Amino acid sequence: DVQFRWNTELEAIHGSQADGVTGATLVSHPREKGESGVDVERETVDVGGVFYAVGHTPNTQFLDGTGVERDEDGYIFTETDDAGRPRAQTAVDGVFAAGDVADPRYRQAITSAGTGSMAALDAEEFLETLQDADESTVTAIA
């Protein structure tokens, strides 16, 4: 039985090396009650595992006014090559994006690691094309 707990903070995981995960203490933060923390509910539940998701809002506001294109939710657009395959290059030369900020679909650590590798390879290729790498700045956003 899988239960989703929205707007809930994981305060503690209970168990041991020998027994594994046996429970969790959760603090519920209903949105309509504000962010004061006064009206929270705390409960301890028996569980055999915890799958933790921290949210899916990309932290890309710092890119406002930079020319890096984003969708309405803040995910960074990256380019494709001539065959339509994804690249890590953004619309701004020397700026590459990888991981959750460029992945509105999967948002998983393993895909973030893969796109991080893509961004590194694309940045390396970009640097090799420059006449004088010392005069340019390369930024990777992950």
Question: Summary?
Answer:
By secondary structure, the chain is α+β, with helices and mostly antiparallel strands. The chain contains one helix and five strands, in the order E-E-E-E-H-E.
Order of helices and strands: EEEEHE
Question: Structural class from helices and strands?
Answer: alpha+beta
Q: From the 3D coordinates, which CATH architecture of the largest domain would you assign?
A: 3-Layer(bba) Sandwich
N- to C-terminal separation? 34 Å
Q: Which CATH class of the largest domain applies here?
A: Alpha Beta
Mean pLDDT, all residues:
83
Strand order of the largest sheet: 1-2-3
Please bin the fraction of helical residues. 10-25%
Percentage of residues in strands: 15-25%
Explain what this protein looks like in three dimensions.
- The chain has 142 residues and is α+β, with helices and mostly antiparallel strands.
- The chain has two domains: 39 residues, no CATH class; 81 residues, FAD/NAD(P)-binding domain, CATH 3.50.50.60.
- The protein is built from one helix and five strands.
- The strands form two sheets. Strands 1-2-3 form a three-stranded antiparallel beta sheet, with no helix packed on it.
- The two termini are 34 Å apart.
